[in-house]
Write a structure and sequence with these properties.
TIM Barrel; eight-stranded parallel beta barrel; alpha/beta; globular; single chain; binds 2-phosphoglycolic acid
Length: 261
Amino acid sequence: MANRRPVIAGNWKMFKTVNEAEDYAVRFLEEVKEVTELDIILCAPFTALHPLKNELEESVVHLGAQNMSWADQGAYTGEISAQMLLDVACTYVILGHSERRELFGETDQEIAKKVQKALAAGLKPILCVGENLNVREEGKAAERVKGQVSLALSSLSAEELNPIVIAYEPIWAIGTGKTASSKDAQEMCAAIRTTLTGLMGPAAENVPILYGGSVKAENIAELLNEPDVDGALVGGASLDPLSFAKLVQNAAAVVARVEGI
Ligand code: PGA
């Protein structure tokens, strides 16, 4: 984390009914309402977005979705548009999560179209990239991840890319309890920043690059101490409001220490 404003984003995946989401929001907000050191985002299932819009209004917590269509509107059964997300006060959208790529066959080309659409609509994409274990063991992790970033972003101008957030999520670390070492996370986030610099010049220094993969309240501080790790995308450890709040507070404490607040 250099001079960039850190981001802690929760990815609830396919968990939580409307009642559960509302209950979570009340308990979570109570714990984090004073946190000003970083941006907090909750990426909820589509059905919980509208109720959360009401719960989170005028709070420090931003709302995000977990996927979105590349189309504006039309005969696309089962899809959700950028406009629909804006309508329920989303400001962020996760795109290209490895579960979308691996389980639902999303390609780099589709993800590129989604990123373009989100940016054009005024949503901030959280573009996820990451290698699987085979690729890592072959020593090709950086190459794979840099390729994913280039394919998703290369048709956009530096100015268009300004609102982008990247999440580096090694597939072997997601939901496995196996976190990448902070050194590995730093190395990959730095490689991503180099690719971004090639695409958008010095503005790449302002892009938050998050790490994701078994992040918990106990390991967030170590990750945030790395210069190119600007926050975290958190799955399992974001499901309980009190433990996610603890993670956010631990992150905020690191920021406060670094900034000498
Ligand atoms: P995890 O998931 O924190 O449960 O490993 C991260 C993610 O998939 O975004």
